[in-house]
Design a protein that fits this description.
alpha/beta, 6 helices, Transcription Regulator spoIIAA, about 30% strand, seven-stranded mixed β-sheet
């Protein structure tokens, strides 16, 4: 009799898990990727809900950062409700102004709230190889990226920072991974 109860419990857990997965996948099918084309003052932004890959590349010096980043923040907020097990945020911004950095911090904070402790959020940061070479130890990396580390200190998912050193042709010539 005890064995039958354990098997029934296992079956119920499996059914609930399967239903949760089907519901999540159904919701994600209706949720579309977001792509914003680059302009002279705004970056190329690609947010893919199916892969969990988010790309910000170029310059971010918009006159009205809220107009650019508020829809992105709303999209990311929706994404976190049904996030992928691994989210990759690729920041290849050659320059960004103060108002852009404030909006990026808001986006980072929302991503840090993905409510799954077994999930991973990896920040991919691209630097000129000269700056990359100046970062020698964990303390240098932490100090250089203090704003990110500060925002993420209470993150629920595991956090990683992958640094890339790029040459003048934007080719990756060095990399290293750091988990916070």
């Amino acid at each position: 009799m005890r064995k039958l109860v354990l098997n029934l419990t296992d079956i119920i857990v499996e059914i609930i898990s399967y239903c949760h997965k089907v519901i999540k996948e159904t919701i994600m099918k209706d949720f579309q990727s977001l792509i914003i084309e680059e302009t002279p003052k705004t970056p190329q932004i690609e947010l893919n809900q199916l892969t969990g890959d988010f790309i910000f590349s170029g310059k971010s010096i918009p006159e009205n950062a809220a107009k650019v980043y508020e829809p992105i923040l709303n999209w990311v907020t929706q994404y976190t409700q049904h996030a992928r097990p691994t989210t990759n945020l690729r920041l290849n911004l050659e320059y960004f102004n103060t108002s852009s950095s404030l909006w990026l911090s808001k986006i980072f904070r929302v991503l840090a709230g993905i409510n799954e402790p077994d999930y991973v959020l990896i920040f991919h940061l691209y630097l000129p190889v000269e700056e990359f070479d100046e970062l020698e130890g964990f303390d240098d990396i932490r100090d250089a990226f203090f704003p990110i580390a500060d925002v993420l200190q209470f993150a629920i998912p595991s956090i990683g920072i992958k640094l890339y050193g790029t040459n003048d042709a934007d080719e990756i010539v060095k990399d290293k991974l750091v988990f916070i």
